[in-house]
Amino acid sequence: MASKSISSAAIILLHAACGAAVPLNQAATGTVAAAAPPATFTPNPNVGPGRGNNYYTDSAHFRLYGASGTQASASLNMLEAAYDCYINTMGWRSSGLSYNSANDDGPFYKVNVYSVGSLGGSAGVMHNDAASGLAWLEVLPDYLANPWITVHEWGHGITYAERYWVDQGRTGAWWETIANWVADTYKTSTFCASARSAHGQSATATEINLRKIIGDSYQVLVDGSVNTGNYYEAWPFLSYITANPDGYAGLGKTAVRDMIRKYNRGSNETPLHSLDRIATSTTAQAIVARYWARMAYVDIGHPTAQQVFLQQRNSLNYANLDAQGTTGTYKVKRARQPRYMGANIIPLKISGAVTVTAKVTANKAFTATLAVRNTSSGATRYVDLANGTGSTAVSANEEASLVIVNTPSSLILFDPFSLTSDVQAGLDYTVTLTGATA
Ligand SMILES: *[C@@H]1O[C@H](CO)[C@@H](O)[C@H](O)[C@H]1NC(C)=O
Ligand SMILES: *[C@@H]1O[C@H](CO)[C@@H](O)[C@H](O)[C@H]1NC(C)=O
Questions:
Q1: Is the domain of 42 the same as that of 181?
Q2: What is the pTM for the complete model shown?
Q3: Closest ligand 2 atom to the C-alpha of 386?
Q4: 389 CB less than 6 Å from ligand 2?
Q5: Which amino acids bring their CB within 6 angstroms of ligand 1?
């Protein structure tokens, strides 16, 4: 799979190129009780190249062109399980509804999926049909029943159906983050367990890439840079706000959906601006800072991701600091300075029961936390370092990490596909430790 690039659905450009003339602010704000969707949606062979092609297999919410038998049923059962989870359990707007429609009453159409021989290096691609306002997918035959490809592409489809991020360029990179989060949640999460089992599907291994997200945690939280970015890998942040282990008001099962629904329409703000709005009792900065603190031990409400961490932790790159002349004092390596909403995770070396004190000073705003984990029980606790300074008693059966996050007091408007100097400016800091070494 690693050799197969997944589509970047380039929905922003694609949609603009199609010239659909639907003002984003047109959606009705009044609420009308939506009619119950039919059990089986209507086929729409005009979406994609389907017209006249009689080689297809139907399920309730999808039509798969170019496949039959067990190949088709394997793909369709997977897609129906994903539909059941994301539409019925997670509450997303149905992929059967038109982007062009301001309501949720229907009509409801099947999503057309085309099995195609070649996609120019991609394993799957999502398209949008401007006239009908419906998403359609193309997937290589070998990947039709592979959720990391096909559920990912459908994840673009439900992002499109939610409407308000379309044509908002600063959300563009996050479309890939969301699509991978949809695919991983489908594969691994208890949120999707009953939907999977209702359609004969099993949980499968997480695709978390800790070498990237921990090894390069200093990068902008969602960075769309070609070759060096993390926008395909950054989805555990979305798993965290969905599992919401810190119980923040406004986050939880529908947090990602609500980042789209509560987006300031037509504003081209960033997803973090929307996150800041849906979190009614805390800030986006505090949420990102606690996410990174929890990533010290991948304690984000994703149990299989934490298992992967416990297997891989010794091979991850934590070389963030250089020791200074004074004992216990360290300075961040220039190349590893945390950028906008990025972090350094610093595992501490501690001998026996001791009080660990950390004092962090920096050139600008940051959030520092001591993450402490009981190595016997796995229980974690988090100690906020007010103004960068604090301490905690660490027992013999506990381990600890210092986590430092670049959290400016105001959110920045930027496009992750073309990072500007304000988000790329690193947090230059010095830390002094007692009771531990870095
Ligand atoms: C760590 O967990 C073990 C096993 O549950 C428990 O006995 C011990 O008291 C815990 N240590 C701390 C410091 O909480
Ligand atoms: C942090 O620093 C600010 C400004 O120096 C000060 O007003 C505030 O009281 C400090 N907070 C704590 C908890 O020390």
A1: yes
A2: 0.93
A3: 13
A4: no
A5: 374, 376-377, 395, 397-398
